[in-house]
């Protein structure tokens, strides 16, 4: 096995709710290393590139609005099997279905909005990770 890198986003609801420290603590406590970290408000171009696979879906406009509504924190995390490992830490997409013990299961719930606000993003494959790291951290791509 070799170390992987994954792209994690602490979405604007995580920043707005003051959960950056709690989420980063879970990532570090699990044993993953933070290679790069930056807070900024995403541009429309970054979000269009990041969520290209969802363009045309009913929730896409709400997703882009949610993700651009305030600052987010982009992180490159590194470690053995960190791609599936961070997805396990994050839990299921829908926070109602996310298991207790996961970031989404413990810290998120469904709000009365058209888009699911679930605090974090984590790359879902090595191919996605490479693509997403090059979007958010072109200098590492
Ligand atoms: P993931 O973030 O768990 O990998 P994706 O399917 O890649 O899930 O979806 C990206 C994001 O879009 C989700 O994290 C969530 O914020 C939002 N989303 C996904 N599916 C739905 C849906 O059916 N309704 C509303 N929002 C959704």
From TrEMBL:
<dbReference type="InterPro" id="IPR023005">
    <property type="entry name" value="Nucleoside_diP_kinase_AS"/>
</dbReference>
<dbReference type="GO" id="GO:0005524">
    <property type="term" value="F:ATP binding"/>
</dbReference>
<feature type="domain" description="Nucleoside diphosphate kinase-like">
    <location>
        <begin position="3"/>
        <end position="141"/>
    </location>
</feature>
<dbReference type="GO" id="GO:0004550">
    <property type="term" value="F:nucleoside diphosphate kinase activity"/>
</dbReference>
<keyword id="KW-0418">Kinase</keyword>
<feature type="binding site">
    <location>
        <position position="11"/>
    </location>
    <ligand>
        <name>ATP</name>
    </ligand>
</feature>
<comment type="subunit">
    <text>Homotetramer.</text>
</comment>
<comment type="similarity">
    <text>Belongs to the NDK family.</text>
</comment>
<feature type="binding site">
    <location>
        <position position="93"/>
    </location>
    <ligand>
        <name>ATP</name>
    </ligand>
</feature>
<dbReference type="GO" id="GO:0006241">
    <property type="term" value="P:CTP biosynthetic process"/>
</dbReference>
<dbReference type="GO" id="GO:0006228">
    <property type="term" value="P:UTP biosynthetic process"/>
</dbReference>
<dbReference type="InterPro" id="IPR034907">
    <property type="entry name" value="NDK-like_dom"/>
</dbReference>
<feature type="binding site">
    <location>
        <position position="59"/>
    </location>
    <ligand>
        <name>ATP</name>
    </ligand>
</feature>
<dbReference type="Pfam" id="PF00334">
    <property type="entry name" value="NDK"/>
</dbReference>
<keyword id="KW-0597">Phosphoprotein</keyword>
<keyword id="KW-0547">Nucleotide-binding</keyword>
<keyword id="KW-0067">ATP-binding</keyword>
<keyword id="KW-0808">Transferase</keyword>
<keyword id="KW-0546">Nucleotide metabolism</keyword>
<feature type="active site" description="Pros-phosphohistidine intermediate">
    <location>
        <position position="121"/>
    </location>
</feature>
<dbReference type="InterPro" id="IPR036850">
    <property type="entry name" value="NDK-like_dom_sf"/>
</dbReference>
<keyword id="KW-0479">Metal-binding</keyword>
<dbReference type="GO" id="GO:0005737">
    <property type="term" value="C:cytoplasm"/>
</dbReference>
<dbReference type="GO" id="GO:0006183">
    <property type="term" value="P:GTP biosynthetic process"/>
</dbReference>
<feature type="binding site">
    <location>
        <position position="118"/>
    </location>
    <ligand>
        <name>ATP</name>
    </ligand>
</feature>
<comment type="function">
    <text>Major role in the synthesis of nucleoside triphosphates other than ATP. The ATP gamma phosphate is transferred to the NDP beta phosphate via a ping-pong mechanism, using a phosphorylated active-site intermediate.</text>
</comment>
<feature type="binding site">
    <location>
        <position position="87"/>
    </location>
    <ligand>
        <name>ATP</name>
    </ligand>
</feature>
<keyword id="KW-0963">Cytoplasm</keyword>
<protein>
    <recommendedName>
        <fullName>Nucleoside diphosphate kinase</fullName>
        <ecNumber>2.7.4.6</ecNumber>
    </recommendedName>
</protein>
<keyword id="KW-0460">Magnesium</keyword>
<dbReference type="GO" id="GO:0046872">
    <property type="term" value="F:metal ion binding"/>
</dbReference>
<feature type="binding site">
    <location>
        <position position="104"/>
    </location>
    <ligand>
        <name>ATP</name>
    </ligand>
</feature>
<dbReference type="InterPro" id="IPR001564">
    <property type="entry name" value="Nucleoside_diP_kinase"/>
</dbReference>
């Amino acid at each position: 096995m070799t170390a992987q890198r994954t792209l994690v986003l602490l979405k604007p609801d995580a920043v707005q709710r003051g959960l950056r420290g709690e989420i980063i603590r879970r990532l570090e406590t699990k044993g993953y290393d933070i290679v790069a970290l930056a807070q900024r408000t995403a541009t429309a171009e970054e979000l269009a590139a990041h969520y290209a696979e969802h363009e045309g879906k009913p929730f896409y406009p709400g997703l882009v609005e949610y993700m651009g509504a305030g600052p987010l924190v982009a992180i490159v995390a590194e470690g053995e099997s960190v791609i599936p490992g961070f997805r396990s830490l994050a839990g299921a997409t829908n926070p109602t279905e996310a298991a207790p013990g996961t970031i989404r299961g413990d810290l998120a719930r469904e709000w009365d909005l058209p888009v699911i606000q679930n605090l974090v993003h984590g790359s879902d494959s090595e191919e996605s990770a490479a693509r997403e790291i090059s979007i958010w951290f072109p200098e590492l791509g």
